[in-house]
Design brief:
Layout lengths: L5 H7 L12 E3 L12 H4 L7 E3 L19 E3 L19 E3 L8 H10 L5 E2 L2 E2 L1 H26 L10 H18 L8 H19 L20 E4 L1 H6 L2 E2 L1 E6 L34 E8 L14 E8 L13 E9 L2 E6 L5 E7 L4 E14 L2 E12 L3 E6 L4 E7 L5 E6 L6 E6 L3 E6 L12 E7 L4 E6 L7 E6 L2 E6 L8 E2 L3 E7 L2 E3 L4 E6 L4 E6 L4 E6 H4 L9 E4 L1 E7 L10 E4 L4 E5 L5 E5 L4 H5 L14 E3 L2 E5 L2 E2 L5 E6 L5 E6 L4 E6 L1
Helix pairs in contact: 3-4, 3-6, 4-6, 5-6
């Protein structure tokens, strides 16, 4: 609940007031306020506010729509501000102070001087002359340099009659080149200069040459080095999201046919007998948002883009590697098609959107790096890795809205990626080239220079689809579900061998015998020992013990080991592949979607204690789901959506939200109440 209420605003007004619209001076200092406490709906009623004191709080940024049209004086001293660009929403601001915000630099001073044309005093100093120089002389010099760069290097590349693809290619090359090569002023202002150069270059392309920056024309799918990358603002991203109306009734299911897969078998597997019922209490989970934010070319008619991967952003201040329950925010990264989106699960807002026109993203993963930002100061930042069909890993500094680099990891598509929980720069990439590579992505400096290096290559005999580091020894063993079975590798870096074969392949029951030959398209750890895997065997998900299955003392490679099965989970009888599963270890939950849009949920808290004992017995009967979330009836412009396949379903560590990714370009967000 927000700390700010109508009563508080009236009480803190100077002098006290009886009406919000009459308040002209407001003191909100020393209230331990965070950004989320500044409710735009409440602040929009302060139409005549002229002076606002927010000093001595915990603000890291300003919301984009506080709507204070008459604000003249703002005090933000002693906060945790990281960015000042949102202050442009206060165009009449004359006096601004933000001293003792350790993450703000001289570059931010120049940004506010440019953005706020009426600003006279900054941190108590008269900046009128300097601000005029920044807005006029500096801008004129940079505009001249940007224009000259275009004339010298790019004008002749644009033919008289050009296609959309040619425009996008030249625009991308120009924006990259101009930010790298146009230099002006001291090096201490290089961040501000790059920021202004990009702004000027975009305006130049849009207005001077008539090259629009946001074309909805779909680009050709071709694999080249000149893909278009773009990062959209929250407002731009929101405009790309179709509003899908849902009616919460069970959807009549139909046979899936969109993928090149075998059709579903009889749906009788969805029925449960009373003797098989899982008696755990059902969670109350309600549909919250249904978003269409990964459309190709931003088309609201796109119901073909497949969504594949999602992961919740870690909260930097919570000690993410120590307490998983508090290690994630309400923000989730999703990927599919040409784009990666960051979504606020509570509001359904698409916060940011990153697109590469020639890419199809299959996987995303987060890590937190401690970077040197300026003046040798260090700060932790979340970095998002995204990879897919082109075999390239994109590294995105989310807070800066900037893709600062890429790693050409494989020559074939990357199926999945994951970071080490103990080594924040270590990234595993699993590819269709039948290799899993371990990379050290390095730490970028203040100019985003970085050096990536390959540390290890794990040779697989078939395509790796899912990978998981063993929780009790994440620096020694990696487990992978592949097209041809389930494998384990020794990944310890003190061994001399850089390219390694698998150490073990696991056997699983197959009717009356054991087999290693089966597709494993779902793999995750439920706790430190229990592995959950889904194979091509219809209607079944296995739970098995890592410690009792893997013989760490044995010698040699490529050994065959029998998985010690603890239980089987009843699931759909479909033989469709690539409908993956996930776990919520803190709550003992397993989730898996099916071919009819439903989410199967298993609360296993009654079983985990017994399984943890050295001689824990196998559960005799298949464990049925605690509950099945049926896909609600969705309509867009009055039309019912086509058949739904659930490709992936992921909860945050506390199981507050459930994010469902589908085959029809719909991201569904459910909330546990």
């Amino acid at each position: 609940m927000s700390k700010i209420t109508t009563e508080l605003l009236l009480e803190r007004a100077v002098p006290r007031s009886t009406r919000l619209r009459k308040i002209e001076t407001l003191n909100l200092s020393k209230l331990q306020l965070k950004t989320g406490d500044l409710d735009p709906r409440l602040f929009s009623r302060l139409r005549h506010l002229q002076k606002l004191d927010l000093s001595d709080n915990l603000l890291d940024k300003f919301p984009n729509s506080l709507t204070l049209p008459d604000l003249r004086v703002l005090n933000c001293n002693n906060n945790k501000l990281e960015d000042v660009t949102a202050l442009k929403q206060f165009p009449l601001l004359e006096e601004l102070t933000y001293e003792n915000n350790v993450y703000l630099t001289l570059n931010d001073d120049y940004k506010v001087m440019f953005l706020l044309e009426n600003l006279r005093l900054l941190n108590g100093k008269d900046i009128t002359k300097l601000a005029n120089h920044v807005r006029r002389v500096n801008s004129r010099k940079l505009t001249s340099k940007v224009t000259a760069h275009w004339e010298k290097f790019f004008r002749d590349q644009l033919p008289e009659k050009y296609t959309t693809e040619q425009v996008k290619s030249i625009k991308e090359k120009f924006l990259k080149s101009v930010q790298t090569n146009v230099v002006y002023g001291p090096s201490s202002l290089s961040e501000f200069t790059r920021w202004r150069v990009k702004m000027i270059a975009e305006e130049f392309l849009s207005y001077s040459l008539g090259l629009e920056l946001n074309s909805d024309t779909e680009p050709e799918e071709k694999m080249d080095e000149n893909e278009e990358e773009s990062t959209e603002s929250p407002r731009e991203a929101a405009e790309d999201v179709a509003q899908v109306v849902y009616i919460y009734d069970p959807l009549v299911t139909v046979t899936p046919s969109k993928r090149k897969r075998n059709h579903s078998k009889s749906g009788a597997g969805n029925k449960r007998s009373k003797s098989q019922a899982n008696t755990e209490e059902e969670a109350v989970v309600k549909p919250l948002h249904f978003l269409q934010c990964h459309s190709k070319g931003n088309s609201h008619e796109d119901f073909k883009t497949q969504l594949w991967s999602c992961v919740f952003e870690p909260v930097i201040d919570s000690g993410a590697r120590k307490d998983p329950i508090v290690s994630c925010s309400k923000t989730v990264a999703t990927c599919g098609g040409e784009s990666v989106c960051l979504i606020d699960c509570e509001t359904g807002t698409v916060l940011k959107k990153y697109k590469v026109a020639t890419e199809e993203f299959f996987s995303v993963a987060w890590t937190t790096l401690t970077m040197v930002i300026s003046d040798s100061r260090k700060k932790a930042h979340n970095i998002l890795a995204a990879a897919g069909r082109r075999g390239i890993v994109k590294l995105i500094h989310v807070a800066a809205d900037f893709c600062y680099g890429e790693i050409k990891a494989h020559k074939k598509p990357i199926a999945t990626v994951c970071f080490s929980p103990t080594q924040e720069t270590h990234l595993f990439t699993a590819s269709y080239d039948k290799r899993i590579a371990l990379w050290d992505i390095g730490i970028p400096d203040c100019d985003y220079n970085f050096k990536a290096s390959q540390l290890l290559v794990l040779e697989a005999v078939s395509i790796p689809l899912r990978i998981a580091l063993v929780p009790t020894c994440p620096e020694q063993y990696l487990l992978a579900g592949c097209e041809g079975g389930c494998f384990a590798w020794n990944i310890k870096l003190d061994k001399g061998q850089k390219s390694r074969p698998f150490e073990a392949i696991f056997q699983f029951p197959d009717d009356e015998s054991m087999t290693t030959s089966h597709r494993v398209d779902g793999l995750a750890f439920l706790n430190d020992d229990v592995v959950v895997s889904k194979s091509s065997k219809p209607g079944c998900i296995y739970l098995w013990s890592w410690s009792r299955s893997f013989d760490a003392k044995g010698k040699g490679c490529q050994r065959t080991m029998s998985a010690v099965i603890l239980a089987e989970l009843e699931w759909s009888t479909t033989d469709m592949s690539y409908l993956t599963l996930s776990t919520c270890p803190a709550k003992d939950y397993v989730f898996c979607g099916d071919e009819k849009g439903s989410v199967w949920m298993y609360n296993l808290s009654n079983y985990t204690t017994a399984w943890s004992s050295p001689k824990g017995k196998r559960s005799e009967r298949r464990i049925s789901p605690t509950q099945i979330l049926k896909w609600p009836e969705l309509r867009l412009n009055g039309e019912q959506l086509p058949e739904i396949l659930v490709n992936n379903v992921v909860s945050d560590p506390a199981f507050s939200y459930l994010v469902v990714l589908t085959s029809v370009n719909i991201t569904a967000i459910w909330k546990k109440s």
